[in-house]
Write a structure and sequence with these properties.
- This is Exported repetitive protein PirG.
- It contains four helices and no strands.
- With 65 residues, it is mainly α.
- The longest helix has 24 residues.
- The radius of gyration is 28 Å and the shape is rod-shaped.
- 0% of the residues are buried.
Amino acid sequence: MPNPKLLLPAFPKPKLPLPAFPKPVLVKPAFPKPVLVSPELKKPKLLSPELKKLNRPGESGDSLI
């Protein structure tokens, strides 16, 4: 019976992986970074008029296809 009692102290070891969860919390601040990418998405909008120019000549459009 003393053996199963030794297994009980083994449970505190799995408690160590629990502090590993705060690490993913550091990943949450990484989401604000994609927010900085959003202004970059506005840049492609500036390219959109340029793409329209490329679409006007059907040759360029056909070449893309």
